[in-house]
Each structure stands twice: as C-alpha cells, then as structure tokens.
Fold Peroxide stress protein YaaA.
Amino acid sequence: MLVLLPPSEGKTAPAGGDPIDLASLSHPSLTEARRRVGDALAKVSGQRNALKVLDVGASLAAEVARNTTVWTNPCDAAARVYSGVLYDAASMSSWDDATLTRAASRLRIVSALWGAVSPADPIPAYRLSMGTTLGRLGGLAAFWRKRMADELDTLADGGLVVDCRSASYIAAYHPSAPWVTVRVMREQDGKRSVVSHMAKRTRGLLAAHLMRADEAPESAQDLADAAAGMIGDSLVDVALTAKAKAPDELTLVIAG
C-alpha cells in the first residue's frame, strides 16, 4: 500500500537546524530535478512580480521572500514542517518511531518543490504550489509527471495506492497500480454534500489510521474495511465505488 498526501499550503518554519541535504531525501534520483525547481523558485521569488507568478497575496510576501534562501534555511522533518488541517488531524508531528518507519514505505507527500518526500525527510519551509508555472521549467505538474512516475510506481510495487491528494497534485502522478481516490461527504438531515475543511481533516485521520495498522490493505475492499474501523464520533458511513475507466472511489461520510 502507498498513501499519497498533498502538502499543506502553510508551513511551520523550523527555528533552527541544518540546511537541506538533497542527497538525504527519499528518492535521491530526483535530486537534480529538485535542484532545478529550487533554483528557479529562489530566482523568481526575488523578482518584482514574484507574488503574481506564485499566485499569492501580499499577506504572504514574507513567505515568498523566504524562498530566496531556500537552500540555506533550516530544516526539520516534513512531518513537522507541513501543518494545517490534514496534518493536525493526523497528528503527524507526534508520530512515534514505529509509525514513521511504516510511513517510510507506505506514505509519500507529493510536493511542487521536492516531488515526493516521506514524513521523516528533513526539509525547509517554502511557498510553492503544484499549479505554478516556473519559467523554462513550465507547469510543475507536467514537470514532475515526467520524472516521478517511475519512482512512485516502484515504491507502490503493484500494491494498492490510496490517494488523498487534491486535483492539482493528482495531475503530477497517475499511479499504474490499483488506485483508490478518497472523497469526503457530509450527511445532514438525510442529505449528503461535498465538504472542504472537514474533508482535509478526515483524510488526515484516515492516513494516521492506516499508518498505525500492522497490516496494510491489499485491495480496495480491504481499504474500505479498514476505514470502517474509524466509524464513530463524526464518521458515520463508508462506501466503495468501482469505476471502469477511473480510479475506484472511497467515500467517507461524516455527520453534519
């Protein structure tokens, strides 16, 4: 099983630590690609039109300015740098060694800057989304799609891929292994509707649930059965939908 997560938009900048060592990250074959994206990001972040290119507002100017020193900024484990609803729900920053060891082979965070990292990989804070076009590199989803597929397919090794990413990050990698996307809906007064904030939280809870399990699901039905073990509190139903020309879909239903 391989669980795919999106990065958080916001990052917690480490207060101290060594600068990034690209060779220390998972998937060292991506080193040159990571260097190219980092160099392009540092360059564009120092330009007058940086906010426009990176599609962020003036309130994030300090984060964009921090990109200019991405190679010398302090690092911490990705589990602590990525923050926000999904990561808070997963309590990833407090995962014990056993859970992090499972995550090293079971989970990847798909990143516009790093391609894919494990929660234990040391990275600096940065501001960059997969929907960005970076000069000669072009659109980042297309850039990484050409370079990341073999790495993640090898890691998945034909096993189940559980996809908790958003659309722009899905565009960067389409698994060749059995593939299940995760959708979250809210049930209120007998009616179901799509949710956003709570979807991130629920996907985070699912990721943590799967990382803590001794046995990884081997099929879409195994995944649905594992997710059903979360029913209680806000989760009220789990449904699996098989699709002929698209990934299977796991729907997690939360109470309104």
In short: The chain has a mean pLDDT of 95. Residues 27 and 151 are 7 Å apart (CA to CA).
